[in-house]
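Input.
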Amino acid sequence: MANDNSVKSPQIYARLAGLLYLIVILGGLFAEIFVRGRLVVYGDTAVTAHNIMTHELLYRLGFSAEVFYCACNIPLIIIFYYLFRVVNKGITLLVVFFSIVGTAIESVSLLCHYAPLVLLGGGHNLSVFTTEQLQGWSYLSIQLFEYGFAITLVFFGFYCFAIGYLIFKSTFLPRIIGVLMAMEGLFYLINSFANFLAPEFAPRVFPFLAVSAVAEISLCLWLLLFGVNVQKWKEKASAG
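Output.
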């Protein structure tokens, strides 16, 4: 019975990782596409402010979804450490480092996501500022969040490289997912540095980033539906 439990253990962790990854992906899509994509009108501070206050609950839901999925990143990365340390402990520690730092940066950046609710909320201390000023600062805070997210994606780009290598070498997950993860990491880096160095070029890069997201979706669904090859995972664990 003890051996049976030890065999099932990595499979249970893999399925749980798939579920957490699904929460992260859905939370990110909801916040980016259905909240900011719907409410933020780039270049128009007044309309953006109007949209946020008219759909305040939706905006708050987007913020809450991102906070929640950032929290889910922590148990997810602990599970990944457990699953992949049998492949290469040093590289797995890099995965943990890049993920935690990226999550920390994104979490701090979320203050800028929340700022428009404070600035546009009509607090007594803000009455000395004009409506146009508050709208402008609200729009600027959203832009700062976007740049904070671009910094986050630099760390997640390196995370994708590291975990792509681990998946490729693991033998208990399909190698093609590892290749796709490494490719996604490359597009993360290109997208972020395009924003930093050539903002006018960045919109041309983003569609490639969106397409490359198939890598994380594939990893998520594979873990959720199939888990890992337990026998090969145990062979790796025994060899280590």
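DSSP finds nine helices and no strands in the chain.
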